[in-house]
Amino acid sequence: MSNRAKYLAKRQDREEGVGTNEKAIPLKKQDYQSLKRECLERKTLFCDPTFPADSESLGYNELGRYSSQTRGMEWKRPKELCSNPKFIVDGATRTDICQGDLGDCWLMAAIASLTLNNNILERVVPPGQSFTEDYAGIFHFQFWQYGEWVDVVIDDQLPTRDGKLLFVHSAEGSEFWSALLEKAYAKLNGSYEALIGGHTTEAFVDFTGGIAENYAFSKAPPHLSKIIQKALGLGSLLGCGINASESETEAETSLKLVKGHAYSVTGAEEVQYFGRPVQLVRMRNPWGKVEWTGAWSDKSNEWNYVRPEQKAKLNYSAEDGEFWMAYSDFIKHFSELEICNLTPDTLTSDEVGHWNYCQFEGNWRVGSTAGGCRNNKATFCSNPQFVIKLEDVDDDPFDGEDGCTLLVGLMQKDGRKDKRFGQDLNVIGFAIYEVPEKVSSVGFNLYIKVSSRYLCVCVCIFGYGCLLQYKGRNNIHLGPDVLLYKNPVAKSNFMNMREVSERFKLPPGEYVIIPSTFEPHQKGSFILRVFTEKEVTASPMDGDVRVNLRKDKISESDMDSKLKGLFMKIAGNDSEVSVVELQKILDIFASERTDIKTDGFSLETCRNIVSLTDKDGSGKLGLVEFYTLWIKIQRYLEIFKSRDKDNSGTMSSHEMRDAVKEAGFQLTSEILQVIISRYANQQYAIDFDSFVGCLIRLEMLFKMFQAIDKKNTGKIGLDILQWLCLAIS
Asked: What is the pLDDT of residue 450?
């Protein structure tokens, strides 16, 4: 199956709910129920061939085959480690997660936060799994990955040394859900080593499908404490850490905080202390030990002056790695805060508020939609575009300013998997532009008939010409007249991270979000997500698919005598040109011009031309038919030359959208990507014969569709015979 067919099939699956948490997609096509049933029937324990118990699953460098860190390591099942293993003991809690020898404290902090909400936990850790009832050595977990939920099947062989789990483990020695969850996440990302180093929000997002935001305390907004409280009230997951140099990683401060280590933020409360309110933040160290010893720590004197009922409510004293500290100390000692805001389908409780949410997938394709940032004026406008309409302002804004809050997250795919191949993440970001009401067109083409030929005069006067209506539409693609002449109203920083996200507050209005890589011509796939406090409408900003072609009425009296002589010379006695003869004429025409490059017109293009232009079904072109074609090619030549900015004889593939539009075709970015992959060369330039071949092919396809779509519904139905005849023709 071609990539294009796979893409269309996947889009159809999405429409049927495939990829939701309820209909998760089996990773590597491994169906948990079928595999488990097969093992039970055979009375064997499952061994996963796609993530085997060997060095490849451990890693490729630090945990590679010959690494000292893996020496003496053995893969063992829980039943080989203890007599009565349990999947979960007395419910999953924060104390079930203790970090092992793998540098994935960011993941541990996220798992700890996951246990605070049982509904969220059960989306990741499906219930009903155990080491007793129908045990077959097989387990499964579900993760959100780039817009869809996937179901990850694993066997229960775990890395051990000296009879103990090597990586994550529970404080309760007979409990294994967290170790198995870590293994499933390692499989999802390619290996255990792929989990070394990261941000807590990355795991938060993969556990929930939420959108992350990061705050550096060195430049924290003035209302950050309110943002934290509101986030916790919305069921969000929060993490934080202290920046550290490589030599300081996991070093303890004098007050027992660990540098370069990920903590969970699990609560925020206000207490009365000597008659004045004090904001407190509750945190947890995923080690399950090593707690803050400063003010408001478990055994600090401050608690002696808090009412007993408040102390009881806050459960302030337990040796579990969890502790309270004043908000003022929190922003003083920690460096950054990470928040994962949850999608509406994640939260089932009415006790917390819900964000509104929309999501889009897109691609940066070299030569078509990989336009780079606004510094690249020649290509920036070719980036994907998405329109969002903000209508209602927020309720009770904590900063006292009316407006519409939105969180925008741009995520690139598969970075952690590609680490083993030495591939770096793209530097990505986005800009937000306000959609103008109307804009004067930058230019327009005027065709004038002179001496039986059509000449193209390009009128380019900014501020004059026809007014283009932009606001209220999503069936257009914004061009330089908007994006290069107006500044964005908001934008993100460009960073080489999996996800770049920012929080904004904008006035009600209509806006276009443009995601891009920093440099042009960088290939990648992305997910763009937008959270808002109020309902909004959002959609891709792209043109409708339609055609509006000129109809030229030509008679023999209009024809140029030189061209007529060439036609008669090649046509021969039947006064018609065949496909091969047409190829000769077009190649002669192209060879006489020094201002265009061409490899010669292909027989396929000439067959399409004859099929399109032949009115009497002879399979050849008569003189009038040929001259009609000639006028069309002259018009295409003028369009082509106007796009050849550097006089190279070729046209940049980024110019194709406007070029085909001028020729009468309005197409979507998806179609343009297919066109460019077919008609551009390795340098993403398009020569003249390829340009003509593309336009002729487009015209033929539109006419074939219109001939079958007799009721003008925009849809056609074909049986296999009709489909093959059309596809081959």
From this structure: 38
- So which residues are the catalytic ones? 105, 261, 285
Q: Given this model, what pLDDT does residue 341 score?
A: 85
Ranges of each domain in the chain: 19-208, 211-346, 356-435+470-542, 556-703
Level-2 CATH architecture, domain 556-703? Orthogonal Bundle (1.10)
- Under a CB-based contact definition with an 8 Å cutoff, are residues 532 and 391 in contact? no
Burial class (CB in 10 A: 0-12, 13-18, 19+), 204: buried
Q: Which long-range contacts (CB under 8 A, 24 or more apart) does 222-225 make?
A: 222/399, 223/398, 223/399, 224/331, 224/337, 225/268, 225/279, 225/327
Note the CATH architecture for domain 211-346. Alpha-Beta Complex (3.90)
- Residue 593 is predicted with a pLDDT of 87
Could you confirm whether domain 356-435+470-542 is CATH 3.40.50.720? no
3-state helix, strand, coil in the chain (%, to 5): 35, 25, 45
Distance, CA of 342 to CA of 336 (rounded, Å)? 20
For the chain, list residues with pLDDT below 70. 1-16, 94-95, 316-319, 345-353, 398-400, 418-420, 422, 438-469, 552-560, 729
CB under 8 A, 24+ apart: contacts of 455-458: 455/638, 456/635, 456/638, 456/639, 456/642, 458/642
The reported pLDDT for the residue numbered 5 is 55
Sign of CA dihedral 585, 587, 593, 598: positive
Helix axes 200-208, 177-189, angle to 10 degrees: 100
The pTM (predicted TM-score) of the whole model is 0.77
pLDDT for residue 577: 85
What is the 3 state secondary structure string of 280-345?
A: EEEEECCCCCCCCCCCCCCCCHHHHHCCHHHHHHHCCCCCCCEEEEEHHHHHHHCCEEEEEECCHH
Please list, in sequence order, all residues whose beta carbon lies within 8 angstroms of the beta carbon of residue 27, skipping any fewer than 6 positions away: 150, 151, 152, 153, 187, 188
